[in-house]
Amino acid sequence: MTRIRGSYRTGRARAEEILAAAQELFIAEGYGATSLRGIAAAVGISHPALLRYFPTKGDVLTALVRKLDVQASAWLDESGDSDSTVPGPGDIARRSQATPGWVELFTALLGEATSPEHPGHELMLGRRHAGLALVQRLLAPFSPDDDSARVEALRLAALWDGLQILWLYFPGEIDLPGHLDAYAEEIEAHGVPRSRLPTARSADGGAAEGGAARSRRRVVIEAAARRYALSGYYGASMRSVAEEAGVSLAALIHIAPTKEALLHLVVSELFAENLEDSLDWMMSWMSSIGDRPRWLNAAQVVLLCEATVPSHPAHDALRARLAAGREVARASLEGSGVADDVARPVADGLVALALGSIVGWMYDGWEADPAVVLGDTVTRVLRQP
Q1: Which of 26, 102, 229, 379 is 20 to 30 Å apart from 68, CA to CA?
Q2: How far, in whole angstroms, is CA 271 from its chain's centroid?
Q3: For 286-297, what is each residue's pLDDT tens digit?
Q4: Strand, helix or coil at 209?
Q5: What is the Cα–Cα distance from 145 to 194, expressed in whole angstroms?
Q6: How many domains would you assign to the chain?
């Protein structure tokens, strides 16, 4: 019996070693770029030995997120007991930022797990729905009705997700806890605005352009985007893209000679929208998200989330796109009379809300419709003195 207990303790300790090594690698290289063999090497064990504990990389990531969730729940319980209050969103964000790798890990899984086929999808969907239910209850005393509280919970989730993405792309520029503190103060001072949940509509989006109008280049780009939507850049091989597109590998290489060249081709197409018009244009584009193919939205979400790691080959390009969006929002606000010292944080909040609305749509479809979640946010902002 002693030997059995000893073996169990040894096995549990080894699993913890694996999770600790994986956490460090996920932070440094990104989830997509990290392999099970790399994790095994970092622990000092063989690849087959690691598979006895975690058969897939998805199992490692979900186990790590569950572990961090348990720690966060314990902290929330302790904080509530000591202060007789529930910590605010800003407090929770500070705690998350103080946990090495938490925001990076959560964001990586947030993007990839939008696909129902991903091993972490049910975990992230369950976490999201539990969080939304809790926030809705906390907002109820400040809300005119249940629908308004539900929409505001969706809005807070979108803001939070988007701010985390921006925080990773722009280290030192985004005050995530500060934004959430300001949000809580706004709700306490003015309450939740009256809103209505959207009527149900398909979350599948429109269809891709078909027939002879699509060139072979366009077919390849769409095929690559579909593969990224399912498994990210690192999980999509050139051969799998060629098969998805129905072309030979040689034909694919003629269009994009390397995997990285193909990625840049896709990024230039997926994020080619003109952001130079106005903030109104950006919000209009966000509101039409449900009219676009689901795989297109999914590819954008997955790439945005996995490329938060500076070593990702699309990091610089996507960071530049986000920087342009932030600048357009800031300039639009200043042009509408919003004070300069207010325009920057408000602009970042609006861009974050737009990003998070895409994520929410991917998980909850019509209920998280950006047209409703965004609502009249821009109008209210522009009416501020």
Answers
A1: 229
A2: 16
A3: 667 777 888 888
A4: coil
A5: 8
A6: 3
CB distance 335 to 86 below 8 Å: no
Q: Are 53 and 14 in contact (CB under 8 A)?
A: yes
295, 225 contact by CB (below 8 A): yes
* Token pair of 279 as six digits: 């903030």
Q: Is residue 83 part of a domain?
A: no
Domain membership flag for residue 250: yes
* CA 86 – CA 223 distance, rounded (Å): 46
Could you tell me if 102 and 109 are in contact, meaning their C-beta atoms sit under 8 angstroms apart? no
Q: Which domain holds residue 131?
A: 88-204+272-385
- Residue 344's CB is within 10 A of a number of other CB atoms, namely 17
Residue 292, sorted as left (phi over 0), alpha (psi -120 to 50) or beta, turns out to be beta
Q: Is the dihedral of CA 309, 310, 313, 318 positive or negative?
A: positive
Give dist(CA 59, CA 244) in Å, integer: 26
CATH number of the domain bearing residue 230: 1.10.10.60
List, for residues 322-364, the tens digit of each pLDDT value.
Answer: 998 898 888 888 887 888 888 899 889 988 988 898 899 889 8
82 Cα distance to chain centroid: 32
Instruction: Look up residue 66 and give its two tokens.
Output: 């569950």
Residues 49 and 102 in one domain: no
